[in-house]
Fold this sequence. Notes:
With about 450 residues, this protein is mainly beta.
Amino acid sequence: MKNIKLLAGIFLFLSVFTFNSCDTEPIDPGINIDDFNQSCQTPSNFIVSNFFNGNSVILSWVPEGNEATWTIEYGPVGFAQGTGTMVNASETPFTLAGLNANNSYSFYLRANCGSNATSDWVGPINVAASSNPNCPNPLALSGLRNATVPTTVEISWTAGGTETSWQVQYGPSGFLLGSGTLVTTNTTSKQISGIATTGSYDFYVRSSCSSSEASNWVGPLTVQPVTSVDCPIPTALTALRDTTVTTDVVLTWTAPATITSWQIQYGVSGFTLGSGTIVTATASPFTLNNIPDANGYDFYIRSNCSTTENSEWIAIPAHVSGNVVPSEFFVKVDDTEYIENYINAGTITGTPNYISVFGVKSGSQFVGILIDDTLAEGATYDMTGLPNSSVKGQYRLNNVNYDSTIGSVTIESKTATRIKGTFTFTASYSYTNTSGEVITFTHEITEGAFDVNY
């Protein structure tokens, strides 16, 4: 009984203490529970370069979370937020063109974290007008590494008017204007030494018309790192959009087992090599995320053989299409419908270059065809069973490849990004047993149809 009374007393004491604490400690009205939501962090170190080429600036920042996209809002200095121009960026640094160097601008930035979550805006960063009609921009900027001394870069340009002095600014590719190394010259060319051979460098030039007047910066001219003939170029690069997450692109390639690092450069279809986004991969296949499916994209690859050696970029890029229309694939093996888990369609670089169309159950089981990408629509092509056949078929079962020996492919329609047709073929696998007999197994691909993006 005494224990019960003791417990009741403790409970009453705590209840009164808690009640009095809530009653006497006011809640700070300035506290907002949302202030403690750290799911979308505000980017830091937001900076914007001066104008270059008369219409462009470079914006740079440091992500503070795992976000993959950001929104930039800009307009005339002092504009009201919400009335400016919005653009999305998927990388930092980010080049924004289409401006007017005669105007001054304000820039804001926020992170996009998905599911309608965004960070607070950071900014404004103001960039003052810099166009000077009395000091013309230099023209025809060009340059390359010295063939004998590759740590020296020789750049040249043409005077835009009567100016006789220029400034050159340079740094590792993607550096922000204003943070590079600055040199001056009184001729329309300049040799710059001490340029590392292991990475690419950007160079800008502007006219210096007086102690107080200068033109816009013109550039960047990008000089690539030194490559090595002993560093082999990867082959058979393919790029395929994931059929479930169409903004994911899966890249595969072939390279010697001694190479364990590669650089991938990509951008919207037709981009200039050297101006794309570069990432490092350590294995094939490799998945790139957040590749917008509204546009087609090109992908290049090169081997990274050491800290000082890279191969050349692959000559022909792999490609994925934009505005993706769902692909369709149907096949019967030995008169039984084959149910694939996903469709794998793309291009394979080689001799010849092939369009590949496969229905895949797993790495050990798939069926499909290879089509020479130069073949025209509206025709039927025979499978010869030879290694260089313009059309081939393959059925893989339990890690055993059954290759086509006879069959055909009909191409009903074909564009640069989509192909439709039908196929049938006989697939065989042979081996020699311990008695010296050649044993052959076959499967019949009795019906096949495809209408796919590649």
